[in-house]
């Protein structure tokens, strides 16, 4: 299953697929592909959504990339260190990419388990 399918399935499961306005994410190319897939699903259901104007980039990520590029350009860090800095993942990123437990939507907030 691709990312667009997984996101659309989750949006639909929670009943918010008709309420999306924009996505904030980094500028990696597979996010471009994903948001175009969301646009395709929206068009099939006559939901207004434009991938080009609804893809917002994460400002902290842009600042990080810019800072690394600047530090490399002025010789503070090496090209190799810049690659390492851009390739590192944080605990937040690892948690955000973990498999989702969607069972909460099915059982509702009043149930524990």
Automatic annotation (TrEMBL):
What superkingdom does the record give? Eukaryota
Report the protein name in the record. DUF659 domain-containing protein
Write down the species: Armillaria gallica
């Amino acid at each position: 299953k691709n990312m667009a399918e997984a996101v659309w399935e989750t949006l639909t499961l929670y009943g918010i697929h008709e309420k999306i306005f924009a996505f904030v994410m980094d500028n990696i190319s597979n996010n471009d592909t994903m948001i175009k897939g969301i646009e395709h699903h929206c068009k099939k259901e006559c939901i207004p959504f434009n991938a080009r104007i609804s893809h917002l980039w994460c400002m902290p990520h842009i600042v990080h990339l810019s800072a690394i590029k600047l530090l490399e350009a002025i010789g503070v860090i090496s090209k190799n260190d810049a690659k390492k800095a851009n390739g590192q993942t944080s605990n937040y990123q690892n948690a955000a990419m973990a498999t989702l437990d969607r069972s909460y939507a099915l059982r509702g907030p009043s149930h524990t388990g």
